[in-house]
Amino acid sequence: MVRFTRKIKKKFGLKMAPLVIILLFFLNTLYTSKTQTVHRTNFVIVGGTGDLARKYLWGSALTLFVENYNENQTFSFFAGARVSQTDGEKALIEILNGNKCERNDEKCEKLRPKFIENVKYVMLKYDENYTELCEKFRTDDRTKISTHQIFYLSIPSAAYQSASHSIHTHCRHEKISSTKVVLEKPFGLNKETAAKQADVISEHFRDDEVLRVDHYLAKSVSKQILNFRAKNREELDKLLNGQFVDRVEIVMKERIGNKGRLDFYDQTGVVRDVMQNHLTELVALVAMELPFNVSDYRMIEEYKLTLLQQIKPVGRDALLLGQYSRYMEEARNEIKNIDQSHLTPTFAAALLQINNPRWRRVPFILMSGKHMDERSSHIRILFREKEFCVSGCADGNSSFTKYPRQLVFQIGHGPVPSAGILVSKSLFNPSWPDTMKELPMTSKDSAIHGQSPGDFHYAVPVKDTPAYTMVIHDLYHNIKETFVTKTRMLLLWDIWDAVIQETSHIPPRLYKEYSPENLNFTVDGFKLRYMDQSHSMYARNIDKPAIKSMAVIPPLFRNKTLFCKPLKALINALASYIFRNAESSIRERKIFHIAFSGGNTPIILFKEILSSFPMFPWEETHVWQVDERCVSQKHKQSNFFSLHENLIKFTNIPYFNIHPMPVSFAGKICAVENKGSNLYEDMISHSIQAQKFDLILLGLGTDGHTASLFPGYIPAKKVERLVALTKSKIEGSFDRMSLLPPLINKAREVTVLVTGKEKHSILQTISDINLTNKQYPITYVSPVAGNISWFIDMDAWLGH
Questions:
Q1: How far apart are the first and last CA of the chain?
Q2: pLDDT of amino acid 799
Q3: Quick one: CA dihedral 583, 589, 593, 594, positive or negative?
Q4: Measured over all CA atoms, what is the biggest interatomic distance in the chain, rounded to whole angstroms?
Q5: What is the pLDDT of residues 91-119, one digit of tens each?
């Protein structure tokens, strides 16, 4: 450069030299810009007006555009969906208008209008629509242009086959430099379907062209795990093994439930949705052997695969399942087919074992759940206490370390101010990667993971980029660590496939939203068990001989939920069940309609409700009768008399919320001409939306009758009555008025309370789930879209 400048000065003189140099520099820049290759990226989001695109993808696309757009890197974005052009454009404009720049981001504010200008809607309903779209990618005839296309399939996985076929058929041509197809989970529902899905995609695209998203790998702290391990290689290599590590916890707790996505969740459940992928990927990040170069993607992938091959398949006794109590209610309101909904786990805890010298003795406990008591995602490595302090100890001599020693990767939320890495000061003094900054620990909580905030070293990523923004960034820049390879995906299924299939017919333990104390569990060797063993479990399939002998308490009775306990505990469980349903109904519909059967058994239930649930929402509750004897309401045999004397008069229920059956009318009792049953039908139809009771309590007679439907009852075929007068075949008994099966079966919840050893024989008789017989009217009770639960005491079950 110096020689060149001297030559210019010599040839053109000292005064002209600077002008000549500037001119030459400008001509060189102009020439370079004319000859430099322009990179164009066509980014197509298939499903571009859907929930994922709306919440995450378009905001991330804006960030990508702002960070990378220039005259040599251009973008065209397309939102593809099945709706019409008009409806699609309207939806897209609404989404884009909702994507705002960060405050004081002048560059974003300047480029955002250009970004919106470069986003178009295209209808992708038919195969020919892909032809029309991809013809637009051929329009530029410049030779120095490199066109790249990305198809992000934000659609149900069942549509991957047709979409990939259309993309391959219509969107590959000589002007395209590269093609990427991006897939969202679920990657199959088991190993077989995952392999088939991969094979279908492989018919059209090479493995390096297919990118499977696991957004947990894109979270800012997840991306720092290997960097942190490398920075502290010497210390951690000595500590991370069975000699020092007591256990590793990998947790993802959420406050939200599944409302709005139950159709998806019924197909997957929490194990497929979170544990088989996100949480097991985190296991690999903390447990894999550390490569010499943590920037070498191929080496990282090789070490991950090795670790995953060393994880034993999860055993049945190492998996616990739960379902939040309102799940079935949400399912009935949201999806058509709820046959399998009671089997869907919304909580799971599992224990993984790694069969290698480093981790052989260490349990890896994975846990995830919806409607938990907090929102937190973290990896927590707890170390054994081996050091005994004899003298000069801060917490007193002759004691082990007072506080636990732990290393925590707080992936998201939780008790800390921001996602970051926490190291107990009693463990070691960490070195931080350049991409992290240490902060003083402050927290609204007095304890974080069992320790005082001041007991931790704490650092956070310098830049906390949202996960999907990082997914889109890595996708564009061809950074592969964020994505799951086909081989790794299948290895993940090897760990979980068998236990998912084995537990698919075992309904999970119910738990209360935001207060799931009954899910507390203990680690027993390499097995897990709930600490509270009193909960009545239930299963889909029942061994019929076992029921007939009553030798065991099966999980279901007549293929429905079974609660079988001693009488006192059973009544408490039923009272609690009613209370929870009342709260749920009032929260969702502002009202609770319950119908009580007559008889002596409900009296002990009434007393339990009054004593154990003083806050029962009586003011929003409407009380109805399931059946009534044809007697005056003042008669001691009247069901309403019993209901009033044992329950109603002790509550603050409004008078107009009480609905006795009109058996006594104008001085006449159950007179046909009075049409009392018709009147009660009209009252129900007027007061209860769609005639759906929130809960109906039934009993069971020794002869199989329920309500006041006695043996020999045959449902009417032509006229669907809801209420009717019935005749008792018991000598000396009164005639009755009763709700009929067509009405009972509309209820959201039906409970059947059975007590006393004299009911043992009838329980054996009706235990056959295929039995529907006029001799046993209880067999006609089968809610159309609701749930039925059997509450049977031990005397009735065992017969003594």
A1: 105
A2: 79
A3: negative
A4: 133
A5: 999 999 999 998 889 999 999 999 999 99
Q: Is the pTM of this model over 0.70?
A: no
Chain mean position to CA 366: 15
Per-residue confidence (pLDDT) for residue 77, from 0 to 100:
95
SS3 198: helix
Sign of CA dihedral 565, 568, 569, 572: positive
Residue among 384, 422, 365 at smallest CA distance from 250? 365
278 an active-site residue? yes
664 is written with which tokens? 């006594």
Tokens 């045959």 locate to 714
3-state secondary structure of 708: coil
The string of pLDDT tens digits covering residues 752-764 is 999 999 999 899 8
Instruction: Assess contact for 799 and 757: CB atoms under 8 A.
Output: yes
Q: How far is CA 46 from the centre of its chain?
A: 24
- What six digits make up the tokens of 206? 């090479």
Q: What does residue 172 show for φ and ψ, rounded to 5 degrees?
A: -105, 120
Strands, E assignment, 124-261: 145-153, 176-183, 210-213, 245-253
pLDDT tens digits, residue range 365-375? Answer: 999 999 998 99
DSSP 139: -
Stretches in the chain below the pLDDT threshold 70: 1-36, 138-143, 386-403, 443-446, 533-553, 555, 716-719, 729-733
Determine contact, residues 658/648, Cβ cutoff 8 Å: yes
Query: What are the CA-CA distances from residue 293 to residues 89, 309, 487 (Å)?
Result: 47, 21, 22
- Is the Cα dihedral 485, 491, 493, 495 positive or negative? negative
The DSSP secondary structure of 503-534, one letter per residue, reads TTTSPPEEE-TT--GGG-EEEETTEEEES---
Angle among Cα 136, 139, 142 to the nearest 5 degrees reads 145
Q: What is the DSSP string of 637-687?
A: T-HHHHHHHHTGGGS---GGGEE----EETTEES-GGGTHHHHHHHHHHHH
Distance between CA atoms of residues 414 and 514, nearest Å: 15
Tokens of 482: 């964020």
Token representation of residue 756: 């006393």
User: Which tokens sit at 48?
Assistant: 């571009």
Catalytically annotated residue among 148, 204, 215, 278: 278
CA angle in degrees (0–180, nearest 5) for 781-784-786: 90
CB of 775 closer than 8 Å to CB of 714:
no
Look-up of token digits 């897990």: 528
What is the rounded CA–CA span in Å between residue 396 and residue 389? 8
Q: Can you tell me which residue has the tokens 């090479």?
A: 206
The per-residue pLDDT for 118 is 94
Closest to 462 in 3D by CA, of 223, 108, 725, 192 = 223
370 close to 345: Cβ distance less than 8 angstroms: no
Q: Are 701 and 632 in contact (CB under 8 A)?
A: no
Residue 436 near residue 462 (C-beta atoms within 8 A): yes
